[in-house]
Each structure stands twice: as structure tokens, then as C-alpha cells.
Amino acid sequence: MTYSYPEALYLVENGWMRVLNSQDIELDFNMLLEELKQLDENVWRDYVIYRDLRNRKYVVKNGFSEELRFRVFERGKYGKEPARYVIAPIVEGKNLPIKRLQEWLVTCRKMRKELVIAVVDRRNEVVYYKARLVDLRNI
Predict the structure, then answer these.
(1) DSSP element (H, E) containing 87
(2) What distance in Å separates the CA atoms of residue 89 and residue 46, rounded to the nearest whole number?
(3) How does residue 7 score in pLDDT terms, banded at 50, 70 and 90?
(4) Residue 37 in contact with residue 6, Cβ under 8 Å?
(5) Fold of 5-131
(6) For residue 30, what are the CA distances in angstroms to 18, 36, 121?
(7) Which 3 state secondary structure label does DSSP give 13?
């Protein structure tokens, strides 16, 4: 079975999975995090969001790219309906070009998903913002 980095961290932190290195030494949460940081510089940001969503009882799966990082299913709908939300993670203070936001919105609209921007602040708290395109021509 294959797990995403944030999911593996979450499972290890909660004692639901053990990870062994190539020398058969068990890695605790911090050791695993350090190993994964070498492979993915955004692993901590992604883990904080993943953990927050799981703690809110959502089913979270990998998204479609590094920028559209997670798919989130409505509670009780996993396996019955496709994911409703796509999560785009951002670290507080980092610039997000409007052009990129527009690209994400167009992509999500084509997939019939709602874009949610997850902002991780310096205290590792997550704030979620729904984003959508609005057509003002017919008002």
C-alpha cells in the first residue's frame, strides 16, 4: 500500500502505522518528518492542512497537482460521490499571483469542484477560503 507523505505522517503521529528505514529502524514522527523534508520542501505545510481536515472528520485524498494538493469529500459521501472540494495550500505571507488563482479557478470549474484556499499561518493554524469565479455581466 502506498501513502502520501502527509497521510503517512498523520498515521505515524496517531500510532496507526509504523515506518521502518532501510536498516529496519522504526522512525518516530520527527525522524520521519526530517526524512520527508529532504524529499518535499512543502511536506510540513501539507501535513498541517491534512491533519486539520482529518481532525474535522473529512476524507482527504491526493489532489491533481502540487498546487491543487488535496481532494476533500463531503462527510459521509466518500465512495458514493466524487470529491466536492479541491484544496490549494498557501503559506501566510507568500505571494499568490492573480493569474495563478484564475488558472486554479478555471481548472476547478472544468472538474465541477469548489476551490478552497488553505492558508497556513506562522502558528500552524489553517484558515480556509472558498474561491469562485463570478460572472457580473448578467447582473
Answers:
(1) strand 85-91
(2) 7
(3) very high
(4) no
(5) Trna Endonuclease; Chain: A, domain 1 (3.40.1350)
(6) 13, 10, 20
(7) helix
**In which element (H, E) is residue 5 found?**
helix 5-13
Q: What is the DSSP string of 93-121?
A: T----HHHHHHHHHHHHHHT-EEEEEEE-
Q: Domain extents for the chain? A: 5-131
* CA 132/CA 101 separation, integer angstroms: 10
Rounded to 10 degrees, the C-alpha dihedral 44/48/50/51 comes to: 130
Single pTM value for the model:
0.92
Look-up of cell digits 488558472: 103
At residue 136, the pLDDT reads 83
